[in-house]
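chain and backbone:
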Amino acid sequence: MLQERLERDGFAVVEDALDLDAVARLTAAVERVRRAESPNGHAFHRLAFLGLDDAFLELVDHPAVLPIVLDVLGWNIYVYHCHLDVHPPLAADAEPQWRWHQDGGRQNVEVESPRPRLSLKVAWFLTDVPTAVHGALRVVPGSHMRDVLTRDREPDDAVPLLVRAGTAVVLDRRLWHARGDNHSDTTRRVLFYAYTHRWIRPRDDLGIDEERVAGLEPVRRQLLGWGTSAIGHWIPTEEDVPLRDAIEHRPCASSSSATWRASPGS
């Protein structure tokens, strides 16, 4: 089961999470943003991108991964952080960089050890990553249970995630991971969505105005951070958390113990 892999390894790979049409639609949206904001064609790292194209909102509550997130974090959640990454091939003489990290920033300094999970991140791959030199995401399986990784030395137990376009990878925020250098002849495109409990402050200002959020279906509105009040993030009303009513538990063997019912109008 995917949740068991996530608990054991700190990540779970969901193959064929997106069909080819969805990959093409999202790739076109990425390129629209990239041409507008980085026309020089250099590597592009864009925080808080969800409001830049309606196609990006489709992944917020996508049924291929949302049940896994709900199983782990529960229904009082939202997207608190996101980034869009485009990495073209590097020059042959580019210096390698040490990028190993855990997500969470000050959470990794200011909370007790062992560190709590607190959030999950989903990486949606829009391009094939068939080899490590294609800029593969590298992970250390099981390292979400470690607080420390030896700095300035490539971990001996690191593995590259080799995936096809349309794959989603669910990551425990504590997992030690790093982006590899892209020395292939293709450009790597990945979208990252990070979910946490609604009582944790947002990392990004998504830039989606209240009127636009108000016009979305209730579940998607919750996942974009909407709430009736400040206390509603801590002690939610039914209106705050439509996700609670959108989950249907059933005792059957599946990739997730929660089945996802999209809200009306989605």
User: Anything to note?
Assistant: The domain at 2-260 is CATH 2.60.120.620 (Jelly Rolls). The two ends are 27 Å apart (CA to CA).
